[in-house]
Amino acid sequence: MEHVNWDGTVAAIEEKGGKAGRDWLKDKQSTHFAFQAICWERSFIPWAIWKAGDSHTNLVESVHRDVNHHGVHCSLYSALQKGQAFDSFKMRTLEVFETYGVRPTYRSGHISENAFTNLRRRDNAQRRILLAQDQIIMKYNHKLTSSYEHLLRSREKIVHKLKTNYAHYDISDQVQKLVQTAEKALEAYNKVKMEGVDLLNTGTGKVNIVSLDD
User: Fold this and answer.
1) Number of other CB atoms surrounding residue 39 within 10 Å
2) Which of 59, 87, 71 is nearest to 32 (CA)?
3) Higher pLDDT, 163 or 143
4) Are 66 and 59 in contact (CB under 8 A)?
5) Other C-beta atoms within 10 Å of 121: how many?
6) Is 65 helix (H, G, I), strand (E, B) or coil?
7) Measured between alpha carbons, how far is 201 from 197 in angstroms, rounded to an integer?
8) What pLDDT, in 10s, does the model give residues 73-121?
9) CB 182 within 8 A of CB 151
10) What is the DSSP code string of 40-58?
11) In degrees, to the nearest 5, what angle opens at C-alpha 63 toward C-alphas 91 and 8?
């Protein structure tokens, strides 16, 4: 990769990128190999070798990191020797792959593999969201059931009061209080039912919203 205005671009990132941009620049500059891997003009690699390599910057950057990691504390001569040994190792790795089909890693490096990994990661993320929604539905079902049971109990108290005190004449105040309690319970129950509208068509489909006959 060549760049028509490298210094200007770096300055623009630092000025307009905010804290994230400045942190990114600081991280890349501190490694002493990242920008050399991104831009050929910053690298010491011959152009022919650069063009023959993989153009994927993540891979190029990781290779530069490996070389830098092994040679950063070396003298010039020992760094040269390490560099040659590194290149020799890479060549032997390629030869083994070409001759025997043995890759240096279990991953093929094919773009389809990366695409599959991204799809699987996205699927797992979506599944976590749906499972979290299932938990919300379960909590809602518990809340709705408790509200419904409270409503039934308040109604049963009215019936019980009327049945056991039918011969008494002065129970109107007690019944009125029970009726008010039942009305509040019904209002609370209806409010909880309305909360369930937002939960429709959510979750994995394995947990359904309870349906109660009120």
Assistant:
1) 15
2) 71
3) 143
4) no
5) 10
6) helix
7) 9
8) 777 778 788 778 888 888 898 899 889 888 877 777 678 888 888 899 9
9) yes
10) GGGS-S-HHHHHHS---HH
11) 135
* pTM summary value: 0.52
Query: Within its chain, how far is the Cα of 34 from the centroid?
Result: 26
What is the distance between the alpha carbons of residues 1 and 76, in angstroms, rounded to a whole number?
Answer: 26
The reported pLDDT for the residue numbered 120 is 92
Two structure tokens written together for 204: 């994995």
Residue spans of the domains in the chain: they are 1-73, 132-199
| Token pair listed for 44 | 């010491």
Mean pLDDT for the stretch of residues 18-31: 88
* Contact assessment for residue 134 and residue 204, using Cβ atoms and an 8 Å cutoff: yes
Structure token digits, residue 67: 């070389």
Sign of CA dihedral 6, 7, 9, 10: positive
Burial class (CB in 10 A: 0-12, 13-18, 19+), 34: buried
Q: Mind spelling out the 3-state secondary structure of 119-171? A: HHHHHHHHHHHHHHHHHHHHHHHHHHHHHHHHHHHHHHHHHHHHHHCCCCCCC
Ramachandran assignment for 18, one of left (phi > 0), alpha (psi -120 to 50 degrees), beta (any other): left
